[in-house]
Amino acid sequence: MGLLVAEELSVGYGDEPVCAPVTVSVAPGEAVALVGPNGAGKSTVLQTMVGLLPPLAGTVRFTDGPVDERDAGFRRAVAGVLDDDAFFPSLTGAETCCSPPAPTGWSTPSTWSTPSWPPSG
Protein backbone atom coordinates (compact mmCIF):
# COMPACT_ATOMS: atom_id res chain seq x y z
CA MET A 1 0.00 0.00 0.00
CA GLY A 2 1.34 3.43 -0.88
CA LEU A 3 1.77 6.46 1.32
CA LEU A 4 0.96 8.80 -1.56
CA VAL A 5 -1.58 7.42 -4.02
CA ALA A 6 -3.13 8.97 -7.12
CA GLU A 7 -5.99 7.15 -8.83
CA GLU A 8 -7.25 8.14 -12.27
CA LEU A 9 -5.86 11.62 -11.56
CA SER A 10 -6.71 14.11 -14.27
CA VAL A 11 -4.76 17.37 -14.10
CA GLY A 12 -4.85 20.61 -16.03
CA TYR A 13 -5.98 24.19 -16.03
CA GLY A 14 -9.59 25.32 -16.17
CA ASP A 15 -11.48 22.40 -17.69
CA GLU A 16 -8.61 21.32 -19.97
CA PRO A 17 -6.55 18.26 -18.99
CA VAL A 18 -2.88 18.45 -19.96
CA CYS A 19 -2.24 14.68 -20.07
CA ALA A 20 -3.94 11.32 -19.78
CA PRO A 21 -5.20 10.29 -16.32
CA VAL A 22 -2.45 9.07 -13.97
CA THR A 23 -2.53 6.23 -11.46
CA VAL A 24 0.53 5.85 -9.22
CA SER A 25 1.34 4.64 -5.73
CA VAL A 26 4.45 5.76 -3.85
CA ALA A 27 5.52 3.40 -1.07
CA PRO A 28 7.52 4.40 2.02
CA GLY A 29 11.15 5.08 1.11
CA GLU A 30 10.48 5.36 -2.61
CA ALA A 31 11.43 8.31 -4.78
CA VAL A 32 9.56 9.07 -7.98
CA ALA A 33 10.75 10.78 -11.13
CA LEU A 34 8.31 11.73 -13.85
CA VAL A 35 9.97 11.82 -17.25
CA GLY A 36 8.69 13.19 -20.55
CA PRO A 37 9.02 15.94 -23.12
CA ASN A 38 8.44 19.61 -22.37
CA GLY A 39 4.74 20.43 -22.09
CA ALA A 40 3.68 16.84 -21.38
CA GLY A 41 2.14 17.72 -17.99
CA LYS A 42 4.83 16.39 -15.64
CA SER A 43 4.99 19.47 -13.42
CA THR A 44 1.21 19.77 -13.36
CA VAL A 45 0.87 16.14 -12.19
CA LEU A 46 3.46 16.63 -9.45
CA GLN A 47 2.00 19.99 -8.36
CA THR A 48 -1.41 18.34 -8.08
CA MET A 49 -0.02 15.35 -6.16
CA VAL A 50 1.55 17.61 -3.54
CA GLY A 51 -1.59 19.73 -3.20
CA LEU A 52 -0.48 22.88 -4.99
CA LEU A 53 -3.14 22.50 -7.72
CA PRO A 54 -6.64 20.99 -7.49
CA PRO A 55 -7.31 17.85 -9.56
CA LEU A 56 -9.76 18.02 -12.46
CA ALA A 57 -10.87 14.48 -11.64
CA GLY A 58 -9.65 11.44 -9.70
CA THR A 59 -8.13 11.36 -6.24
CA VAL A 60 -4.86 11.94 -4.46
CA ARG A 61 -4.49 10.49 -0.96
CA PHE A 62 -1.72 10.62 1.61
CA THR A 63 -1.82 7.99 4.37
CA ASP A 64 -5.48 7.44 3.49
CA GLY A 65 -6.36 11.11 3.95
CA PRO A 66 -6.74 13.96 1.49
CA VAL A 67 -3.66 15.85 0.30
CA ASP A 68 -3.50 19.27 1.93
CA GLU A 69 -0.34 21.30 1.44
CA ARG A 70 -1.51 23.66 4.21
CA ASP A 71 -1.23 20.84 6.76
CA ALA A 72 2.12 20.92 8.61
CA GLY A 73 2.21 17.13 8.96
CA PHE A 74 1.79 16.69 5.23
CA ARG A 75 4.53 19.25 4.48
CA ARG A 76 6.90 17.47 6.89
CA ALA A 77 6.27 14.10 5.26
CA VAL A 78 6.15 14.94 1.54
CA ALA A 79 8.91 16.75 -0.34
CA GLY A 80 8.78 17.86 -3.95
CA VAL A 81 11.51 19.51 -5.97
CA LEU A 82 9.45 21.43 -8.50
CA ASP A 83 11.33 24.68 -9.11
CA ASP A 84 13.15 25.51 -12.32
CA ASP A 85 14.90 28.62 -11.02
CA ALA A 86 17.47 26.76 -8.91
CA PHE A 87 19.33 25.19 -11.83
CA PHE A 88 23.09 24.91 -11.49
CA PRO A 89 24.63 23.39 -14.64
CA SER A 90 28.04 23.04 -12.97
CA LEU A 91 26.68 20.53 -10.41
CA THR A 92 26.12 16.83 -10.98
CA GLY A 93 22.71 15.34 -10.21
CA ALA A 94 24.06 13.87 -6.97
CA GLU A 95 25.56 17.20 -5.92
CA THR A 96 22.27 18.96 -6.64
CA CYS A 97 20.30 16.47 -4.51
CA CYS A 98 22.78 16.69 -1.62
CA SER A 99 23.22 20.47 -1.58
CA PRO A 100 21.47 22.11 1.36
CA PRO A 101 19.22 25.10 0.85
CA ALA A 102 20.30 28.48 2.21
CA PRO A 103 18.08 29.02 5.25
CA THR A 104 17.20 32.53 6.32
CA GLY A 105 19.91 33.96 8.53
CA TRP A 106 22.83 32.03 7.04
CA SER A 107 24.99 34.68 5.48
CA THR A 108 27.62 32.58 3.75
CA PRO A 109 27.88 29.10 2.27
CA SER A 110 30.89 28.50 4.55
CA THR A 111 28.45 27.44 7.28
CA TRP A 112 27.05 24.65 5.10
CA SER A 113 28.19 21.09 5.55
CA THR A 114 29.08 19.24 2.39
CA PRO A 115 27.89 15.62 2.29
CA SER A 116 30.24 13.06 0.85
CA TRP A 117 29.21 11.41 -2.39
CA PRO A 118 28.76 8.58 -2.91
CA PRO A 119 27.68 7.73 0.63
CA SER A 120 29.95 5.24 2.39
CA GLY A 121 28.66 1.93 3.58
Which secondary structure elements does this structure contain, and how are they paired or packed?
Elements: E1 4-10, E2 12-13, E3 16-17, E4 22-26, H1 42-49, E5 57-62, E6 65-66, H2 72-77, H3 93-98
Antiparallel strand pairs: 1-4, 1-5, 2-3, 5-6
Overview of the molecule:
The protein is an alpha+beta fold. The chain has a domain at 4-82: 3-Layer(aba) Sandwich (Rossmann fold), CATH 3.40.50. 17% of the residues lie in helices and 20% in strands. The strands form 2 sheets. It has a 4-stranded antiparallel beta sheet with strand order 4-1-5-6, covered by helices on one side. A hairpin with a 2-residue loop joins strand 2 and strand 3. The longest helix is centred in the middle third of the chain and has 8 residues, at 42-49.
